[in-house]
User: Fold these one by one.
Assistant:
Number 1:
Amino acid sequence: MANVLILGGGFAGVVAAERLAQQLSAEHNITLVSRSRNFVFYPALVRLAFGKCKKDDVSFDLRHTMMNRRVNFVEAEVAHIDPFERKVNIAHGEVEGKLPYDYLIFALGRRLATERITGFYEHAHHLLNVDKAIKFGKAIEQFREGRAVFGQCLGARLPVPVYETAFALSRLFEERGERDRIRITIVSPDTVESELGAVRAALALTKALDVHQIETLSNFSIGSLTQNSATATSGDVVNFDLLMLIPPLRGSSAAHYMGVTDDDGYIKVDWTMRVIGQERIYAVGDCVSFAGPKLGHMAVRQAEVAATNLAEEIDGHEPVSHYDHEMRLVIDESGSDSIYLHKDIWTDEPATVRQGRFWSWAKRVQQRYWEMSHS
Ligand SMILES: Cc1cc2nc3c(=O)[nH]c(=O)nc-3n(C[C@H](O)[C@H](O)[C@H](O)COP(=O)(O)OP(=O)(O)OC[C@H]3O[C@@H](n4cnc5c(N)ncnc54)[C@H](O)[C@@H]3O)c2cc1C
C-alpha cells in the first residue's frame, strides 16, 4: 500500500487527487492537505468584483468533494518538506507535527511578494483572494470619476485579470453613459506583445482596448506606491483615483529548503512533472519553474501528467505521460472583442488567435462546468 500526500487544494492539487483516485486501486491511501477547505475558481474573481456573480459561485467545499472521490482531506498549513525523512511538517491546522508520505505531489501555488513594492499593502487593491476581490468591488462602486490604473507588477505573470478588469470598468461606465468621466490606464513591466507572446493576439487586444479608449503604459515597472500615485523604478509617476495591481508573485516558501527551486522560488521539474533531483516527489501548477504566464489550464494538464506517471511509478513502471507547455487563455471583453489565444511555448509554431462573443460565453461555461462537477 502506498501513502500519497498531495499538498494544495487549487486546480493542480484537486485534479491530481481526482486523477489518482481514478487510477490507483483502493488499497492505496490518498490525502490532500490544504490551508483552507474552500477551492477558489480564480478566473471568476473579476466577475465577482463587478457583481456579476456571487461568492458562492466562485468556491466550493473541498472536503465534501474529496470525500466523494475517496480522497482524505486535511485542513492544515504546510510549513516545509523533509525529503530525507519523507515527511511534511505541518505548522498548524487539523493535524500538527509531521505527516509521513511514500509519494508526494507538491501543488501549493504561488505566494504574494507584496513586500517588494513599498506601499502595496496600504494602497493597492488586488484580486488574489475572494475577500480582496469583494473589497475591490466596493471601491469600484464608490468610484465615480477620475483615473483608474490597473496593472501587473514585475514577476506577476498574470495579464488576463488586468485586461478583463479594464474592459469591465469601461463597459460599466459606457452603460451608464458616463465613460467620459473616467480615464483607464493599464501599466505593465512588459509590452502587450511580450505578455501574450504572439503578435496577432497583441494586435487584436490593442484594437479592442482602443475601441474602449483604454490606454496602455508599457515598460512601467512599479517600484512604490502612495495613496494616489505609483512610481516606476525608472522614476516615472502615474497618479490614480482607483488602483488594482497583480502583485509580484514567487514560489511557495514551503519548497525553500529542498534545494530544488530557481531564483524566484519555483520548483524545477522535468517533462514527467517529477521534481529534478528528488525521488518520489512531483510538482504541478503555479509552483513550477516554466516560462511564460501561469494559468489554470496548465495546472490542470500538469496534474494529469503527474498523476498518470505517479500511478505508473507506484506500479513499478516507467513514466508514460509527457507535459507540453502550452498557453491557452481567454480575455473576456464581455462582447465580440473577447480573445482566445493558443500557443505552444516550447516550439516556434505560430499562435492560434480567435475573437468573438463565443469566447466570453465559453469562459463562463467552463466555470459552470467546474462548479457542477465539483459541488
Ligand atoms: C484573479 C485571477 C484571475 C485568473 N484568471 C485566469 C484565467 O482567466 N485563465 C487561467 O487559465 N488562469 C487564470 N488565473 C490563474 C489560475 O487561477 C492559476 O494558474 C491556478 O489557480 C493555479 O492553480 P494551482 O493549483 O497551481 O495554485 P492555486 O490555485 O494557487 O492553489 C494553491 C493551493 O495551495 C494552498 N496553499 C498554499 N500554500 C499553502 C500552505 N503553506 N499550506 C497549505 N495549503 C497551502 C492554497 O490555499 C490553494 O488551495 C487567474 C488567477 C487569478 C488570481
Number 2:
Amino acid sequence: MDFLTIRASNPGPLTLRGTNTYVVGGTVVDPGPDDERHLEEILAAGPVQRIALTHRHPDHSAGAGRLSELSGAPVLAHGVGLEDGDLLAPGLVCIHTPGHASDHLCFWHPESGTLLSGDLLAGSGSIMIAPPEGDLAAYVTSLERVRALSPARILPGHGPEVTDAVAKIEEYLDHRREREEQVVSALEEGASTVGEVVTLAYRDTPPEMRPYADLAARAHLAKLGRDLPTV
Ligand SMILES: [Zn+2]
C-alpha cells in the first residue's frame, strides 16, 4: 500500500512546516486547511473514495467539507462512521487515541507497520495537550497503546516521517514522565499557583513558549488531581 504525503502550506509553531495530508489508495487522511490549491493537489492524486479525520482541529479538518463537495466522498471521523477497531479501508485499522483531543484516532496498517499518528506524535518537537479538551492521563495511555503495536514507522500529522518509531514513542513517554516529576518537585517546593509551577518546572522553556508551558503545566496538574489558581 502506498502512502502519499501532500503537505499543506499552513506553517506555524504548532503545525511545524504545515499539516500533512496522506493519500492511501482512495482514502484521504486529514485534508488539512480549507486551501483550494492544497485540495486541488489532493484531487490530482486520484479519485477520492473517503475522507478521514484523525481529529477535528481545524488545521486537520477545515478543508474536509470542501473536499467532500468537490469529490462526492463522505467525511468520516470518530463517532461519525468510525469507532475503535473499525477498518477505515482494507488493511487500515482505526485506533481511538484520546488525549490531544477526545475524538483522536490513529490509523494503523499492520502489514507495513505504518502508524498514521495525526497529532498523537509529531515528526519533531512535542504535542500540545491543552486542558480542558486535552487530557494528559488519556494521552499517556494512548501513547502506551500505540507503543504496544511496535510500529516500524510513524507518518505524523506534522513534520517528517519517523523511522525509529518505538524509540520516538518512548522518548515522548519519558519526556512526560520527567516533566511530571518536575511539576511534583515544584509542588513540594511550595508552588501554589500555576505561574509558580511554570517558573520552577519549566525553567528550560524560552519566554516566547511560556503560554504553551502554562497550558502544559495545567495538563500535568489536572493529571495529578491538583487545581491551583492561575496567579
Ligand atoms: Zn490537533
